[in-house]
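Changelog-adjacent note: as of this version, every example in the card shows the full chain rather than a window. The one below runs 272 residues end to end.
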Amino acid sequence: MDLKQVGHSLDVLISAFNSRIVELQELVIARNMYPSTSMADLSAVDTTLKTMESQIQAIKDRLQEERNAIPKAKKLIEMSRSQQRMLQHMLVHKPTGMREVIDLPDPMPSCDIMDTRDYDLLSEASKVQGEPAMAPFKEKKGRISAPRWYITADELDSLSSYMRGRLTLEKVNIAINEIAVYAEANAQLITAPRKKLAEDSWEKALELRDLATSDTVKGKLFFLESDIKGPGLKLDNTGKAILTVLRHLGRIQEARLGHHRVITLLKPPQHG
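Full-length structure tokens:
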């Protein structure tokens, strides 16, 4: 029932009440002709009128509450539709075959999901009980999650045909997912206690911790060029072209630290 129908129904109800009041007034006039018996009848009429007026006021208050709720309901519906459109867009454009997680050879400590702003590594390699101090991650159940800043079709089209080559939106976004997985794995190694790691993993963890304290990498999620093993991103011509595109679009930054080529994840300017 819309507002017009509700208003019409209320008018009909009020009209009926008014007709009843007129009838009661006529009865009062008629009964005043017999004063000896009219007092009790007048009291009953007064009580009836007050009850009817109270009911009408309650109906009006309820209708006003409904009117006040309509703008909020419309706003909620619009927000729900907007979110639905966004989720449908994400579902349609999500590349197929994307990997969400990789299995590490050893169990890692549980850490809270975070973005690059939360990833604050220690600036000094202090030691506690023979182990380098761990970065102050927030800890909860779950894995460390690196942000995945996927590119859009407009961004890909904005590149020169020479840079874009035969790359597709799906190929580039699959690569973005994979480099996020590499960065997550390294972040877990950095925070893992010694007893949780095998000897070869511990050696890599120490290397990563040294890199993590450098000014170039500190405070960022990162991976090494040697971590790239596919299947979506490989160190072939296509893979190098994808890295060039990601660097140009502000998703990654590369630096040479010792014998390692270190690649850090960046938040693109349009998402800042």
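Structural remarks: The radius of gyration is 36 Å.
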